[in-house]
Specification:
InterPro entries: DUF3605. This protein has 220 residues and is α+β, with helices and mostly antiparallel strands. 31% of the residues lie in helices and 11% in strands. It has helices spanning 31-37, 49-57, 68-85, 88-97, 152-167, 200-207, and strands at residues 115-119, 130-137, 173-176, 189-196. The protein has a 4-stranded antiparallel β-sheet, with helices on both faces. The model has no long low-confidence stretch (mean pLDDT 92).
Length: 220
């Protein structure tokens, strides 16, 4: 429930840090984001592993949302990126992926050099035992032009990669590719993998010791 006594941009902010007016990074955001950011963290219920599996199974990935205070930080972060880098895509490619070229070396999933696995920088409001990773690719993963969903061929390619890379190490997992309308980064192909209670050493190995931006970014 949105907090009815305060403007949405003051909710979850310590009183001694209240801005005098709505910050630039929260101006012009959607009504949906305003509603989420205007909800107290204490009133937000994180999703269980069973709920996450059901959401992915029913392809209702639009039901994934960030914790209200995390969504606020995410908006502040992306606002800063757009000013400093010109676009989120440039930051992703140059700072997160560190790819000098976006030209794939071969066919989809043929070469490891065309793929990078990192943490989702701003994960959803989910059980702390669930680890959310993003598989970034230099190659395209085809979508159906009419539905915007993955083609059967690209689904099989992703499924094969997930089984080979993750399933041998993690018992419980799900994967999904966002609908085009839900993607926050359109220009770099990617899909999502969620692992339940994975081994820490496996995560360190598979991500190259990556640390998500949510753990690095400082507001203010």
């Amino acid at each position: 429930m949105p907090h009815e006594e305060l403007p949405f941009w003051l909710v979850n902010v310590p009183r001694d840090q209240w801005p005098s007016e709505c910050p630039d990074f929260l101006r012009g955001i959607s009504e949906k984001d305003k509603r989420i950011i205007g909800t107290l963290d204490d009133e937000y219920r994180v999703l269980t592993w069973e709920e996450v599996r059901d959401i992915v199974r029913s392809n209702r990935v639009d039901k994934f949302h960030r914790l209200p205070s995390e969504l606020r930080r995410y908006r502040q972060f992306t606002h800063r990126l757009e000013k400093e880098y010109g676009s989120i895509m440039k930051f992703i490619v140059n700072e997160r992926l560190k790819w000098e070229s976006m030209e794939p070396k071969g066919e989809p999933f043929q070469y490891d050099d065309d793929i990078k696995i990192l943490y989702n920088d701003w994960p959803y409001g989910i059980d702390a035992d669930i680890v959310h990773l993003v598989v970034w690719t230099k190659f395209e993963l085809d979508d159906d032009a009419e539905t915007g969903l993955s083609t059967e061929a690209s689904r099989q390619q992703m499924e094969g990669y997930v089984q080979k890379t993750f399933a041998s190490q993690v018992k419980d997992l799900v994967w999904f590719k966002n609908w085009k309308s839900l993607k926050s980064v359109h220009a770099v192909e990617h899909f999502h993998v969620m692992l339940y209670k994975p081994d820490a050493e496996f995560l360190k190995e598979i991500t190259g010791g990556d640390v998500p931006m949510t753990e690095k970014f400082r507001t203010g």
